[in-house]
Amino acid sequence: MYDLIIIGLGPAGINACIYAKRSNLNVLVIERGMPGGTLHNIKEVENYLGYEHINGSDLAMQFYKQFKDLKIPMVNEEVQNITLEDNIKVIETSNNTYKSKAVIIATGRGPQKLNIPNENLPGVSYCVLCDGSLYKDKTVALYSSNPRGLEDAIYLSGLVKKLYLISNKEKLIGSKELVDKVNNLENIEVFFNQNINEIIGNEKISEIKLKDINLNVDGLFVNNDYGPITYFVKNLGITNDKGYILVDEHQETSIKGLYACGDNTKKEIYQIITAASEGASAAINAYKYIKEI
Asked: d(Cα 231, Cα 218) in Å, to the nearest integer?
């Protein structure tokens, strides 16, 4: 049993960790991907306190170094569901079940799931930079219809033997430079006007089914439209119709002891510094809640 479980290790989650550690709470962090979240997709940060100019990934690593110095235990797992047992929160991941007095959800925004069977099979990933190196000289598919998907495709093409780029659009979306580069890479094959209808595999992904063709693959990367990563709380009634978590001025949801902060919440301003601030507020108020129960 933990005092507090923090889900997500972006700016909001890391700052929540700092304040939770200062409050001497028994904390566990659950992160499914690369610490730093979507900071890794930002080339240049020019509006964060203390840094006139810094690469997003470099800022993420500065944050992560500070987190590591806290010596808070972390597991690299994906949360599947959260349920309640009286005042206790039960977090089910792809590997384990954890219990905690309070929970802070700081999962941010990212590519939305396809919501098809077998999407949780090993070999399905939502982060090219995190997992791309695992597929050197293998055959993978990338499902994306946005400009950032072109950058992912170019990166993957330098690693894999064969890349299937699958888009539900009629053409590639992005700058002419990126489009031309993708079209000129010999190991990329593009499929237009297609959706992934089924993921096939037993212990791991082996095949994907499109509208009129099946493709044998070692892995699948999903770079879908961006939105809040909150699919695991859809049954709790704490989100709006867009999936954003609704919180009060204390970062608390309508469920006592369940907090959210950062870009997965409904708010007016989505900035690194506001996410970090919300993480601090969530941790401080979670501490107050834990001491009262």
From this structure: 25
3-state secondary structure of 125: strand
- Per-residue tokens: 151: 């950058």
Quick check: 261 and 16 in contact, CB under 8 A?
yes
DSSP string covering 211-232: SS-EEE-SEEEEE--EEE--GG
Phi (first) and psi of residue 189, to 5 degrees: -115, 125
Mean pLDDT of 118-143: 92
Long-range contacts of 182-189 (CB under 8 A, 24+ apart): 182/150, 182/153, 182/154, 185/153, 185/154, 185/157, 187/157, 187/160, 187/161, 187/162, 187/163, 188/153, 188/157, 188/163, 189/162, 189/163, 189/164, 189/165
How many CA atoms lie within 13 Å of 169's alpha carbon, on the beta-carbon side?
13
CA distance 257 to 174: 43
**Alpha-carbon distance 86 to 250, whole Å?**
21
Q: What is the pTM of this model?
A: 0.78
Contacts of 187 (CB under 8 A, 6+ apart): 157, 160, 161, 162, 163
Under the banding of pLDDT at 50, 70 and 90, the label for residue 153 is very high
* CA–CA dist 112, 222 (Å, integer): 8
Q: What's the mean pLDDT in 168-172?
A: 93
* pLDDT digit string, tens, across residues 232-252: 999 999 999 999 999 999 999
CB neighbours of residue 31 within 10 Å: 23
